[in-house]
Amino acid sequence: MGILYGMVARGNVVLAEFSAAQTNGNAIARQVIDKLPQGISDRILSYSHDHYIFHVKRTDNLTVLCMADDSFGWRIPFAFLEDIHQRFVRTYGRSIHSAAAYAMNDEFSRILSKQMDHYSNDPNADRLNRLKGEMSHVRSVMIDNIEKIVERGDRLNLLVDKTATLHRNTVRFKRQARRYKSSVCWGNCKLASGLVCVILIIIYVTLAFYCRDPLWRYCFE
């Protein structure tokens, strides 16, 4: 059930209170206030009664008290007390020192009710658990990012392998192209030489036919 009762008092003078359930919490709270050590301005302590725990925070003679289930722990109740103390001082300031009993009850009891419900039912009210949840979320995100990086690394390795294979194929193709080009050039040279020889033979035969003498005689006569 969480926090069931809340109170703000100056010394033994109750300035505001709220009860979320029909209990004798207000009567027990007054007994707790009466038992608080005198002469100590700053005090944080807890009292047990039946199945309930009364948590108390006193600062500069301003006492903030709440009653919670004994299974509710202490972290959230004391966070509630700190929140209520700051809100009360911020709202009323110096008037706290001279206010009459229940002078702030009409207004501040609504704030007590709202904050009691918040700290009892809202998971985000527990800062430690909220931080743990955020850390868990960050951890899952980091793990997810690491997995993506590893996966991306595998893809990069595959790309590097494919690039290396492509490079080897390119080198092999260039070598084959050079050999083919050389063979084509050599074939062209042989073809050109053969054509020159054929042309020379044709010229010789033609001149010999028209001169009807050996070519060397005709040329030197």
UniProtKB/TrEMBL annotation:
InterPro entries: Longin-like_dom_sf, Longin_dom, Synaptobrevin-like, Synaptobrevin-like_transport, V_SNARE_CC. The keyword Protein transport applies. Signal peptide: none annotated. Residues 7-112 form the Longin domain. The keyword Membrane applies. GO terms for biological process: protein transport; vesicle-mediated transport. The chain crosses the membrane at residues 191-211. It is found in: Endomembrane system. GO terms for cellular component: cytoplasm; endomembrane system; membrane. Keywords: Coiled coil, Membrane, Protein transport, Transmembrane, Transmembrane helix, Transport. It is a single-pass type IV membrane protein. Residues 127-187 form the V-SNARE coiled-coil homology domain. Belongs to the synaptobrevin family. Involved in the targeting and/or fusion of transport vesicles to their target membrane. This is V-SNARE coiled-coil homology domain-containing protein.
